[in-house]
Amino acid sequence: MKRLILFIALAFSMVSTAYAGPVRIKDLVEFDGVRGNDLVGYGLVVGLNGTGDGLRNAPFTEEIMSNILERLGVNVSGEQFRPNNVAAVFVTATLPPFARGGSQIDVTVSAIGDANSLLGGTLIMTPMNAADGQIYAVAQGTIIAGGAAVEGDGANVTRGVPTSGVIPSGARVEREIEFDLSSLNELRLALRDADFTTAARIEAAINNDFGRPVAVMLDSGTVRLNVDATEMASVAHALGRIENIPVEPERKARVVVDQRSGTIVMGEDVRISRVAVSQGNLTLRIQEAPIAIQPNPFAEGETVVVPRTRAELEEEPGIGLAEVPDGTSLSEVIAGLNALGVSPRDMIDILKSIKAAGALHAEFIVR
């Protein structure tokens, strides 16, 4: 047992601590008003190689196809047509800030019917609306699907997601967002990860760079900037100067584990109090081996099945009672467990138990 504890201690001593460096303010905050807007549209993809919607199962595809043909001057009222090379889709995109009329943006196309694949299809002109109901872009173009599907009489194989694809630069901006940045006298900087220490450091870094108080911390997630006090030519010039100022962020002690993949991600500030750890695996095996007993030849009687059960209980060797010293970082504990050959699944169970015992001083997130 002493040898095991010594081995863990030696593994802990081999871990070096990495410290975070300064980060640009543009990578820590979002500028109030400088944001994208989500767009969505409903359209039709044509030119599919027999992998489109079954119109009997997706009547909305027939409806939109009829509307498009009628707008093009083709009268299809009362006609019965059942093509299998068209598919109804949703088209989504994000209108970036300060996008001007005529600029192009990427779009994502996703089937909403029972189409098997959008590979090789072409999206017909599709208006894209924002939350206010106005049309801000129009999408059209050839779809690049990210998968493939092969189907036969007795089997089918699907690789990736062939019912979804993208059109690079597939939408053209038709309407601009009305936002006058130059008219702002004050601007708020919203921290992506709210923290009082980080907000205070951003405030101090901006004031030190300008040599006068131009920024004030309002709360853990907001820093207010007085644009007039910066004495810059415009708001854009002030933001261009501020966003490249380096600041060392303060991170919360946090442990994130993913049970499906066995991934463990932790911060450098995670600490563990004095605790003892013991772990082992218990395996129970039960095997049924019934025996059939038959009567002798020419004798009277019936065949009888006699049950026979074999039960085994095995305990695989695990971690003995090991003591973790006070103030040990979690990275050192993980390194010690790795050196002992502990699997990621068992490691996650150990961390859960340490957290439940109150010895893991960090936010514990399980996905």
TrEMBL record:
SUBUNIT field: The basal body constitutes a major portion of the flagellar organelle and consists of four rings (L,P,S, and M) mounted on a central rod.
UniProt GO molecular function: structural molecule activity
One GO BP annotation of this record: bacterial-type flagellum-dependent cell motility
Lineage: Bacteria, Pseudomonadati, Pseudomonadota, Alphaproteobacteria, Rhodobacterales
Signal sequence, renumbered to the chain: 1-20
Pfam families assigned: FlgI
Keyword GTP-binding tagged: no
Protein purpose: Assembles around the rod to form the L-ring and probably protects the motor/basal body from shearing forces during rotation.
Location(s) in or outside the cell: Periplasm; Bacterial flagellum basal body
Family affiliation: Belongs to the FlgI family.
Superkingdom: Bacteria
InterPro entries named in the record: Flag_FlgI (IPR001782)
Protein name, UniProt field: Flagellar P-ring protein
Keywords for this protein: Bacterial flagellum, Cell projection, Cilium, Flagellum, Periplasm, Signal
Record's keyword annotation contains Metal-binding: no
Main location: periplasm
Any GO CC annotation of this UniProt entry: outer membrane-bounded periplasmic space
